[in-house]
Amino acid sequence: MKNIAVIIFEDFEEIEAITPVDLLRRAGAHVEILTLENNLLTKGRSSIFLHADFRLQDRLDFSYDMIVLSGGSGVHKAINNNLLIEFLKNAHQKNLPIGAICAAPIILKKSGILENKNCTGHPSVANQLELHNPNTSTILDKNIITSKGAGTAIDFSLMLIEFLYGLQKSNEISASICYKENK
Predict the structure, then answer these.
(1) Which of 112, 121, 157, 158 could crosslink 105 through cysteines, CB 3.0-4.6 Å?
(2) Taking the complete model, does pTM exceed 0.85, yes or no?
(3) Per-residue pLDDT, 63
(4) Domain range enclosing 58
């Protein structure tokens, strides 16, 4: 079973966190929601509260197979969280796949992870990203998966599944939610 960390923070984008959690669990992954906050109950940008499984600071030694960052307006505060930056750098040094959606790719950039990588992100942060491709909703470059925003959360999640489990599993999950029958 693959172990996945989905990282949230105050003012995270709810769709961008819940969709990967849901679809990755349907694919058979063990997904843990980690918060940067001290309280496990974390408020999203639309005032929907999500109860995280753990605080990031309590799971630094756990072995994950993939890291996923939700986006949202809280990214602009999360980007200054040194613990998160170090966690991402360590994951990148281990060559783990890392996904980031919406504004979260700027956190990957600050971590040095996007160097020489094609990426996409929300138009509000596009000018901060090198090798940004505004015409593609979701991009895989080696082990880094980036996506534009809430409207691309399903495509993003299916690409995460395809990376971990293959195209057949991604298509199976897509069909099971009546999204797309085949790629």
Answers:
(1) 121
(2) yes
(3) 94
(4) 3-176
